[in-house]
Amino acid sequence: MWELVSDTVASLALSSGVGTSALADSSVLQASPGRGLVALLAAFVVATLFYAVTLHLAATFFLGTVPTQKAATVAPAPALVSVLLGRYGLERVGFISQRLGVLIVVVATLSADALVISRVYDLDVVPTAILTLLHFAFAAVLGIALANLFGQV
Fold first, then answer.
1. Which of 89, 102, 126, 139 has the least C-beta neighbours within 10 A?
2. Where are the transmembrane segments (predicted)?
3. Could you read off the pLDDT of 143-152 as tens digits, one per residue?
């Protein structure tokens, strides 16, 4: 809806000749949309909070009562990997297609998640794999629900 309104306003302004240079140049509103250190840090903090909540839910479901601090300790690792490698899932990068990029990001994020889960929760290989897959499932379900709620899908 907002795209339709903004397109209509922009076309009316351009046809009338009022504010032509300001509306045609989107850099007036944002110096560099979606880029910069602040955007990267904000994405990292949001991803860390999201992974901490979903990991705590998965750990409580699988292990029983666990302290939330363990989930908060684990969460920055998969958040960092997914934020830094996130571009691979959005567009073609070099010889890596978009589909292969998504696979790379998911495997790298799950690997980082499993490595830190095994250290922090002091689990063997099989319980670590189960908790990692549960964490992935909880994150996928909550992520899809939030994306639908905010209209991103």
1. 126
2. 40-64, 71-90, 96-117, 129-150
3. 999 999 988 7
